[in-house]
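Fold this: tRNA (guanine-N(7)-)-methyltransferase
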Amino acid sequence: MTAYKSGDPTTLGRLYGRAKGKPLRAGQQALVDNLLPRIAVPAEGPVTAESLFGEARPLHFEIGFGGGEHMAQRADMLPDHGFIGAEPFINGVAQALTHVSGDNGAHPPIGNVRIHHGDALEVLSRIPDGALSFLYLLHPDPWPKARHAKRRMMNDGPVDMFAAKLRPGGEFRFGTDHPVYLRHALMVMQRHTHQFEWLCDKPADFQNRPGGWPQTRYEAKARKVYGHEVWYFRYRRK
């Protein structure tokens, strides 16, 4: 995750957390070497639909996509939209590349995804204001200790940036299974009611996964292995 100076959505801090785990398998390494350079977000310059996909289209951005299941399924659902995902963990990037490439021939390749291996907020800062239709933050690292709260992605600086990059009527989706992070996120979003409208009429709206919200591998593990409750939040940009 990335730490921000309080209230400053433009000053990047250092990236926290691990960047790699167990060695990649040969097939995964081949995807990192050969496919990733072809679909990587450019290292410099504005990040737009035209620069990434050659035409204007609705843009989606996922922060910390994990293994890429959600991003790949959403992109497959919406082939006329463009999807940008950022993830600092190379093993997650490799898994996402497997999905994008068609799961080793099991499915057709997905052509409307672009990937950044690194800091999501650096890429997000290069997206023009009002350009995003959807922004996703699913099961971010909770950093549960109070002294690490500034490392959480859900803080005032990043949320201000989310608001700036979403078009009016655009949607911010947030999910977590961690009660400490849940309380922190709700507190932060309460300070941003001038920017976001919470799309919630009843408890079931945040207790049940909405339609069109694919389940991630992490979410399934949280429920089935650890018995955690999972919460789902949808906010509309005012």
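The CA atoms of residues 69 and 211 lie 15 Å apart. Strands lie at 2-4, 12-15, 59-63, 82-87, 113-117, 132-138, 166-176, 196-198, 231-237.
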